[in-house]
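subagent[fold] <- orchestrator: predict structure for attached chain, return tokens only, no commentary.
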Amino acid sequence: LCVVHRFLGKSIPEHRVTLYDKCTDVLLYEWDRAKFPEGSTVGKLDALAKRNLLTWLAREMHDAGLVEMAESEVVISFQAVLPRLGAAGVGAKALLAEIRDRSGLLVEKRPGYFGFSHLTFQEYLTALAYVKDWKKLPERYQEEWWQEVICLTAGVSGVDAGKLIQELLRRKDNLAVVMAARCLETATVVPVKVRERVERELRRLIPPADIETALKLGRLGAVVAPLLLQSLQAQLHWEVKQLAIVALGGTQYAPAVPTIVAELGSPDGNWYTAYSILRLFFGKNEMAGAAVAKFEAEHPEVLSIWKLQRTE
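subagent[fold] -> orchestrator:
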């Protein structure tokens, strides 16, 4: 990120897909200009060829549910792709050896096994590999392993983000609506009618209007948590905030802890909801534990009430 910041004239792209694109660009640029000596195997491939090579490897790994791949399998993958890139004469094994010694994208995570230096790179490159096959992705929206790939694919050039989002909405369940909203975050061009439909569906769910919806949202986990947190930080009626806190508790989304801790000082009924959620769902979180201990020390009667209600 620091290199991207410098490379782009002291700025960082706000659009996530663009940011990942620039990150991979910088690392590929580093391969060419600094990492490898003249005449190296890697030097025989231009940046586009290297990106394509790693894109297809990322797709193979993600399709197989892998974050690591054996060296022999990576070599086979390279051997299959290099001729398509006009680089049949490049030795796949020598190429992998040089990448192992110098690369910033693909690293040897343990002896004989390679993976991307961060799962984000694998997900982004997999999204690039699915540009022509994006219609295969909406059906996998319930699989956590594929959710980030789906969202990134919506923001990649060449993908009809509007149709992808409509395919998600066609599933008619809460998770599909949340995934459609996440795709709006990454997509750059979406028809107004599609955008308005997603916003209508999202308003039906977030913030939750009743305890049943709050509990259902909580079971969706981290995929919905950022949207719930955003709603909790808005100026809502205390009863609506209370439901958002309950939903966030179900997600066990750690970044929500500071906002929930702040509700301990609420003059209305939210302080007890916040206390209960911090105790139940964030018991192992250091910040939550410290906040609960401090609150109990200042209000010793609260723990007795909580224990009594738990017994009942």
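orchestrator: received. Logging for downstream: The radius of gyration is 24 Å. The beta strands are 69-70, 106-110, 113-116.
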